[in-house]
Amino acid sequence: MELTKDYLSSHGIRPSAQRIAIMDYLLTHKTHPTVEEIYAALVPLMPTLSKTTLYNTLKLFYDKKVALMLNIDEHTTRFDGDVQPHAHFQCLKCGTVYDIFEPELPELRSVYKQKIGDLNITSVELSYKGLCAHCEQDNSN
Amino acid sequence: MELTKDYLSSHGIRPSAQRIAIMDYLLTHKTHPTVEEIYAALVPLMPTLSKTTLYNTLKLFYDKKVALMLNIDEHTTRFDGDVQPHAHFQCLKCGTVYDIFEPELPELRSVYKQKIGDLNITSVELSYKGLCAHCEQDNSN
DNA sequence: CTTTGTGCAAATTCTTTGCACCAAA
DNA sequence: TTTGGTGCAAAGAATTTGCACAAAG
What we know:
Two copies of one chain form a homodimer.
Chain A: H1 2-9, H2 17-28, H3 35-42, H4 51-63, E1 68-70, E2 78-80, E3 87-91, E4 97-100, H5 106-110, E5 115-116, E6 119-131, H6 133-137
Parallel strand pairs in A: 3-6
Antiparallel strand pairs in A: 1-2, 3-4, 5-6
Chain A binds a DNA duplex (25 and 25 nucleotides) through α4.
């Protein structure tokens, strides 16, 4: 919690109670949560928290580059407190988003922040979809 | 138009007038259009066309694998009639989505439809963001 | 006829905005 | 004491749903 506060400060983000709670949630729940999931988790701890603040804060985190904004899910935006370049996989059946740090994904590291032709790359998102092992073998649901 | 009709038929899609018009639009406008853009372009030619049909049809195209559904844009879904594996780049200033077929993106081809660990990949989306050359040099807007 | 496709209107979901109050520098 | 942060309520945008009619096999 104190570490989270320092983390925010060192990135030029004033550490309000709300911001600390939200970043703390992201750092301890690497599940690529939606706004709704974060809200549901934090409201019991911080009853006055509003969706507006949540949206404001997540946008701020994204702008300050302490969170990734993922568009892998067609229905909603997901957030990731892990800003190291890595790929994601979403299971089409259960919806779970998995991290992929496999070394056989050099693109992410080599092309990141480079140019392709006359395009100046500042961010990259690599997303896979399919069935996870659990859903693959489980034909029941 | 006749080619488009055959194209749909050969993919198990009954070629209604609406479906032909929509696929034809996708095949001749490789601009990664939004639903709104497709609608605005087609309504003058087909005044009774509804958004519902457009949504139904684009979903059908996606399911039948004759169109890609792109999540690169955080505000809206974009569609692409080019189903060959390729990457995209969206300019953060002007919003344009460019195709990237660069050969230095082997990931897309090699990993596509393979497994990573115990995850069964069926599709992949590689999206870059940044400034395009035009917006980069143009500080005025 | 029986299934499939279309389209209107309404509903739903996700996200943003306007504004007032509160808090910190 | 001004700037920045929070949160309520309302608005807005994108997408989905329910249902009735039309069209094709």
